[in-house]
Amino acid sequence: INRLSNNHPARQHPDWVVPYGGKLYYNPGIPEVKKFITEGALEIVQNYDIDALHMDDYFYPYKVAGEEFPDQKTYETYNNSRFTNIEDWRRNNVNELVKDLNTAIKQEKSYVKFGISPF
């Protein structure tokens, strides 16, 4: 994280990111992260004449041998007993983010298409 510029969002909010497999990932289990991602997408939709916004690799990363994705604390903080296991909770985080993005984009400019490429 220290290699990022001082004004990088991950430096300003280190609690929003988790290290995993030698990379940093925004933690979509944190509501502020979902809001940050949605606002970033909206900035593009609002300020550029685009026909579509395409998102790639929107899901949790593939498992790294011998390493668990470090979001257990986030699960315990934000789950509110809605999901009995972390995998279902993670899927719901992704579903909520996709839904929020689509809703925000369509409210801003109904003609802008929103697409996702999972692989």
TrEMBL record:
The keyword Signal appears for this protein: yes
The keyword Hydrolase belongs to this UniProt entry's keyword annotation: yes
InterPro entries hit by this protein: Divisome_Glycosyl_Hydrolase, GH, GHL10
Domain Glycosyl hydrolase-like: 2-119
Keywords for the protein's UniProt record, in alphabetical order: Hydrolase, Signal
An annotated Gene Ontology molecular function: hydrolase activity
Annotated transmembrane regions: none
Coiled-coil regions, chain positions: none
Protein name as it appears in the record: Glycoside hydrolase family 10 protein
